Amino acid sequence: MNVGSLIRTERQAKGKTLAEIADALAVSPNTVWELEKQNRGSMATLERICEFLGLEWVRLPAGRSLERFPISRLHNRSL
Fold first, then answer.
1. Is pLDDT above 90 for 15?
2. How confident is the model at residue 64, as a pLDDT?
3. How far apart are the C-alpha atoms of 44 and 52, rounded to whole Å?
4. 3 Cβ contact list (under 8 Å, min separation 6)
């Protein structure tokens, strides 16, 4: 599982749509979709989505990409 898949799973578990997150963060639904499906997007957007979903974000070390980021570093605050 990659970061985008984890975000999508958490979003769906909380009953939120792409449009709801996009509206709350003032970004396009396509921006959220690209992060979930293609692991593309800015770190700032990823951090904001995590905050919205109640996930704790741990920053990537310099030079790391989302595709190689271990999801064990992204934790649900409610656990």
1. yes
2. 56
3. 12
4. 35, 39, 46, 66, 69, 71, 74
How would you write the chain as a 3-class SS string?
CCHHHHHHHHHHHCCCCHHHHHHHHCCCHHHHHHHHHHCCCCHHHHHHHHHHHCEECCCCCCCCCHHHCCHHHCEECCC
Question: Mean pLDDT across the stretch 56-64?
Answer: 64
Q: Round to whole Å and give the CA distance between 19 and 78.
A: 24
Overall size of the chain counted in residues: 79
Residue of 63 and 27 predicted with greater confidence = 27
Question: Which amino acid belongs to residue 40?
Answer: R
